[in-house]
């Protein structure tokens, strides 16, 4: 099973809300405190936790209490040194560095300076370090395999910052959304709902949008500081995906006893009318090498009466960026549409049968314990047909005959 987490953010996301949701779901506060000591800044803050109500709902509020009146800001290299020297679990360290790097890149782009020159101002530096590293520690402690996040509300109004009053969403948040391609919307609340720290944490999500298909086990509620028209709570969903066929077999379960499962799949589409047909085969190979599940083309008529093709790629969400990069690099397209869809998968497994000419793999699929499809693998049949100079369909026929003979016996 793949362990999944989903950040549901109806009132936005901030670092302390993430910490609250993680503690609420079961991450020990003592573990976070002990691990954070490795950063060497324990004398600058303390963590406090309290249960609070938001519009009648009980949630967990985490406070980062500052112990010093004056705090020096830190640049990215200094923060990276703190993280790499802290002896954190490997995934927590990796995620923490990724989040801070994304935050520094966004701030640098806004101010027109290199990420290494970005200065994380005053007390915000301490808050950001504790919130980001603490969140990554909590996700690692929960053994999360994939993190997903909902679309994020834009908020509105203005907020006081180190450089004066800024419109909401603040420039760094907008840049992070742009960099990561986050879906956003307005929920009508004119407040700062997504902080730069919260937006940066969200960048490590595998994807954004509706919750992934999962079996839900726990919910953690992390409270925000303000009182809003709706409960100011970030909800952390914790669950497991409905296992894939290989995972089911690894647990020793009979595949024919398993019902169909639903998974989230990414679909990429682009129309092309100015690429040599000779390149299409190479594009197919490159896409499959990048992790595509399937690739296909359709003939279409385009503007100016030009014949063209619609190229469609199906892949898992974690391979979306890699497949998109192949399309931009290997074709002439200037734009790619992508969406997330749900697909139902039948339980299936690969079995082997012997024929007069050699061994052939056969894909077998069930639906509600009933056999619905038996198909010899094309490549195996083609290889034997070429080797023995015999018709492909004869190899295919023998493989099917052998499989059904085994079934009867």
Automatic annotation (TrEMBL):
The keyword Transit peptide does not apply. GO terms for molecular function: lyase activity; nickel cation binding. Pfam families: Ni_insertion. Keywords: Lyase, Nickel. InterPro entries: Ni_insertion. The keyword Lyase applies. It comes from the Bacteria. Belongs to the LarC family. HAMAP family: LarC. This is Putative nickel insertion protein. It comes from Gloeocapsopsis dulcis AAB1 = 1H9. The lineage of its organism: Bacteria, Bacillati, Cyanobacteriota, Cyanophyceae, Oscillatoriophycideae.
């Amino acid at each position: 099973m793949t362990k999944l987490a989903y950040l549901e953010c109806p009132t936005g996301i901030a670092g302390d809300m993430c910490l609250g949701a993680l503690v609420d779901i079961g991450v020990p506060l003592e573990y976070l405190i002990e691990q954070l000591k490795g950063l060497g800044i324990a004398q600058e803050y303390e963590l406090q936790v309290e249960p609070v109500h938001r519009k009648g709902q009980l949630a967990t509020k985490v406070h980062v209490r500052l112990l010093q009146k004056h705090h020096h800001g830190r640049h990215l290299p200094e923060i990276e040194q703190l993280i790499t020297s802290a002896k954190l679990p490997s995934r927590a360290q990796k995620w923490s560095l990724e989040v801070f790097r994304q935050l520094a890149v966004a701030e640098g782009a806004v101010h027109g300076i290199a990420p290494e020159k970005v200065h994380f101002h005053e007390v915000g530096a301490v808050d950001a370090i504790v919130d980001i590293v603490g969140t990554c520690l909590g996700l690692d402690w929960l053994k999360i395999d994939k993190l997903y996040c909902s679309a994020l509300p834009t908020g509105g109004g203005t907020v006081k910052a180190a450089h004066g009053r800024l419109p909401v969403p603040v420039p760094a948040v907008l840049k992070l959304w742009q960099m990561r391609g986050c879906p956003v919307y307005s929920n009508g609340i004119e407040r700062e709902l997504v902080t730069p720290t919260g937006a940066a944490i969200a960048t490590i999500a595998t994807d954004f949008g509706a919750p992934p298909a999962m079996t839900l086990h726990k919910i953690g509620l992390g409270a925000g500081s303000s009182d809003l028209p709706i409960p100011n709570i970030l909800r952390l969903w914790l669950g497991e995906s409905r296992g894939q066929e290989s995972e089911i077999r690894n647990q020793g379960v009979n595949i024919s006893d398993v019902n169909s499962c639903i998974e989230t799949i990414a679909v990429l589409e682009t129309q092309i009318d100015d690429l040599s047909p000779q390149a299409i085969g190479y594009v197919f190979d490159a896409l499959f090498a990048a992790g595509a599940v399937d690739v296909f083309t359709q003939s279409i008529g385009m503007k100016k009466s030009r014949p063209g093709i619609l190229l469609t790629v199906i892949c898992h969400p974690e391979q979306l960026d890699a497949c998109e990069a192949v399309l931009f690099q290997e074709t002439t397209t200037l734009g790619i549409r992508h969406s997330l869809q749900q697909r139902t998968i039948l339980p299936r497994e690969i079995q082997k049968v012997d024929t007069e000419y050699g061994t052939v793999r056969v894909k077998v699929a069930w639906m509600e314990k009933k056999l619905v499809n038996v198909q010899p693998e094309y490549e195996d049949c083609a290889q034997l047909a070429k080797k023995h100079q015999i018709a492909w369909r004869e190899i295919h026929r023998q493989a099917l005959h052998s499989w059904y003979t085994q079934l009867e016996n």
